[in-house]
Design a protein that fits this description.
Layout (H helix, E strand, L loop, with lengths): L16 H30 L2 H28 L1 E4 L3 E6 L5 E6 L3 E7 L2 H5 L3 E7 L5 E7 L1 H28 L1
Helix pairs in contact: 1-2
């Protein structure tokens, strides 16, 4: 089953370790905040602080699960630049493998939100002719995101020209 998600003779490029750290930090900040507000409201409004305790216990369980799965999810991400397409894989329980043919790419975006910029990270998003298809690679260093953007744009243009010339010959 594992061979479904690993193209032969290619080495997967991995995400920056900073991406894992950023995801762990967001879990440590947002899960407690997300559950503390309702817990306090329930406790103050009803006077039944034991319900607040249950809410905080649920938050603790969710936080522990996230702290276990974030590193596993980070390790599951990878991408391979092949001659005619880009492979992207990710997922722990639900594995995904996306193959994006260079000739079908229409847009390559580099994005970086405030938290990503604080960690020195960026994401590359690929858009294809179909609105339902596309791909995203998060957790790249700015240098790798720039290199990947330029390379994918160059390969996309070259493959699109090949398709046009081939279609014109037919």
């Amino acid at each position: 089953m594992e061979e479904l998600f690993a193209p032969p003779a290619y080495e997967w490029q991995r995400l920056s370790p900073k991406y894992r750290s950023m995801r762990l930090l967001t879990s440590l900040i947002f899960v407690p905040i997300l559950f503390t507000i309702p817990a306090i409201i329930v406790g103050v409004a009803s006077g039944k602080w034991w319900i607040s305790g249950v809410i905080w216990a649920v938050a603790a369980v969710i936080l522990i699960i996230r702290l276990i799965f974030v590193p596993r999810n980070w390790r599951s991400w990878g991408y391979v630049e092949r001659e005619d397409d880009l492979y992207i894989t990710h997922g722990v329980m639900f594995r995904n493998l996306i193959a994006v043919p260079y000739g079908r790419m229409q847009l390559v975006e580099v994005e970086s939100g405030p938290l990503e910029r604080a960690y020195g990270l960026a994401s590359v998003t690929l858009k294809t002719a179909s609105p339902e298809t596309g791909a995203r690679i998060p957790g790249l260093t700015p240098e790798e995101a720039t290199r990947l953007r330029d390379r994918l744009t160059e390969l996309g243009e070259a493959h699109a020209e090949e398709l046009v010339h081939r279609d014109a010959a037919i």
